[in-house]
Specification:
The protein is mainly α. A two-stranded antiparallel ribbon has the order 1-2. Strands 3-4 form a two-stranded antiparallel ribbon. The chain starts with a helix and ends in a 7-residue tail after the last helix.
């Protein structure tokens, strides 16, 4: 009888050990989830960009208020999955090297098209700020004469974009398309977005702004280029892609990439450059989506991308869910209190960004929040900034608790050296 008791006990102990082992979260599995979600997000970004491409083709074929509205609506929808990919920047060189092609901002819109007289002309900082490629079939960049008679994706990619090495010479990507759909927002910190009329795309009689045929060519070429850029990145994260291979090759390095993206986007990029800086300068030109007044959504979905990365869960535009072994589960195994802290801080940040989004959707646009002396706007924006900073402190603790190499997150003068902002 005793021997039977020992045998049963040993068997039970074996089951307990097996259960404990199976409950452990594999670092490899966590990184694989991160890559799977990246693949889904870039695929969704591509799909929504193709929908935008179709809507823009319809606008060009039949310019009208309805087709312009449909194209603008498709642009806003395309931003939802894309902004959630920004957490893959900073830690993944393939993404960071590519990102400027699709999401560079701010841009000197006079490089592309006509602008209001208040915009001014060339400056010491950017002599190409009013180049107006659409109005000029021949352009000169760095002393080189370029034939711009036919506007193609190759022309936009090879010549004006970041011309003369100036970052604000943005000729491609979401924001170039945004400008061509909305036009300049001339309302300052008052209500209203850009008001480009659909007649800017009318061919022949009724054309406003001049060069409607070339404007249509530019808009279509820029959209085609965006789609091809997203095709490249979607392939990079699909099975066999170089970005996926690089991040899953070593679980430790993969976790570092994940946490680098989470911390750098939270702190220097979003809390600093995209939010605190604009508030310090009271400058609506510092809005991320400044032509469309869509900045509240950009901030919200950037924040959601960080939360996605931690929880290992992403809700696609069609409502389906991609999820798997998560960084949250890995942290919880090591330090349950730290996991609870991180979850709570992410929730607090999303609540603050959600409050900005809700206020904007109720008519208090993000650029209005930036007005000097607007206490309500400052409180909304700073709640988001503070939440992002606070969650970065917990991300730093996670790096240490998981025994990973120290990570230097992206910074911002607006947070680290505020006096430098005004020098």
């Amino acid at each position: 009888m005793p021997s039977l008791h020992l045998t049963v006990s040993a068997f039970a102990l074996g089951l307990t050990l097996a259960t404990a082992a199976s409950a452990q979260v594999s670092r490899d599995a966590v990184v694989a989830t991160y890559a799977d979600i990246a693949a889904a997000k870039y695929a969704d970004s591509l799909d929504t960009a193709r929908t935008l491409q179709t809507a823009i083709a319809a606008l060009i074929a039949d310019p009208g208020e309805a087709t312009l509205l449909a194209a603008r609506t498709a642009w806003i929808a395309a931003r939802v999955p894309y902004q959630q990919t920004e957490v893959y920047r900073f830690g993944n060189p393939i993404v960071d090297d590519w990102e400027g092609k699709v999401n560079a901002w701010p841009l000197d819109e006079g490089l592309i098209d006509y602008v209001d007289a208040s915009y001014g002309g060339p400056s010491d900082a950017n002599e190409l700020a009013a180049l107006n490629v659409i109005a000029n079939p021949q352009i000169t960049i760095a002393g080189k004469v370029i034939d711009a008679g036919t506007i193609t994706p190759a022309l936009i990619a090879d010549t004006p974009n970041e011309a003369d090495g100036i970052e604000t010479n943005v000729a491609r990507g979401y924001h170039a398309i945004e400008f061509l759909l909305w036009g300049q927002d001339l309302n300052g910190t008052g209500p209203g977005a850009g008001e480009r009329p659909h007649t800017d795309y009318l061919q022949g009689e009724g054309c406003t702004g001049g060069n409607c045929d070339r404007r249509a060519d530019y808009l279509m070429a820029a959209t085609d280029l965006l789609v091809s850029d997203l095709e490249f990145m979607a392939a990079e994260w699909a099975d066999g892609g170089a970005a996926r291979a690089a991040v899953v090759a070593d679980a430790g390095a993969g976790l570092v990439a994940m946490l680098t993206g989470m911390g750098s986007l939270s702190y220097g990029e979003q809390a600093g450059e995209r939010m605190r800086l604009g508030l310090m300068l009271n400058d609506p030109e510092e809005e991320h989506d400044c032509f469309s007044d869509n900045t509240h959504n950009s901030h919200y979905y950037d924040g959601l991308g960080v939360q996605n990365a931690y929880l290992g869960r992403y809700v696609r535009p069609d409502g389906s869910v991609i999820e798997g072994p998560s960084l949250a589960a890995l942290v919880a195994e090591t330090d349950p209190a730290l996991d609870a802290e991180m979850r709570a801080k992410l929730d607090a940040t999303m609540a603050a960004l959600g409050a900005i989004k809700a206020a904007a959707e109720a008519g208090f646009a993000y650029d209005m929040m930036l007005e000097q002396g607007n206490a309500e706007g400052e409180a909304l924006v700073m709640a988001g900034v503070n939440g992002l900073i606070d969650q970065t402190r917990s991300i730093e603790r996670i790096v240490t608790r998981l025994g990973l190499d120290r990570i230097a997150f992206e910074g911002s003068d607006s947070l680290d050296n505020p006096s430098a902002v005004f020098q």
